[in-house]
Amino acid sequence: MWFPKIGAILHEEFEQHGWRFDPNELALCRMKLSSIYNADARQLVPRWGKEVKFDNSKSKSVLGIEYEKDLKPMLIAMAYTMLENNCMIDKRPKPKKDKKKRYVE
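The structure assignment produced for this chain is given below.
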């Protein structure tokens, strides 16, 4: 599963709460810009768009671990945990204040 799919899953779950997860490919452009001043982003840029596969057969056979096939519930639970623990900056639009001038006669 790659970033656009993850973004789409999180956007579907959290848009009703005002959170926005951008599922489109423009995220690569932002990642490249962020990599100028952020070491974590700098490490991700060369890996962008490359398919990485891992072999977990040894952990299954030796440790008896069973892995979840559907990652959607895990991603959603992880995002809720990150929000509850203030691991993500709240960039939701603030409610606009009523700027109508009230005149007293």
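Interim note for the steering committee: Helices lie at 3-14, 27-34, 39-44, 57-63, 72-84. The mean pLDDT is 80.
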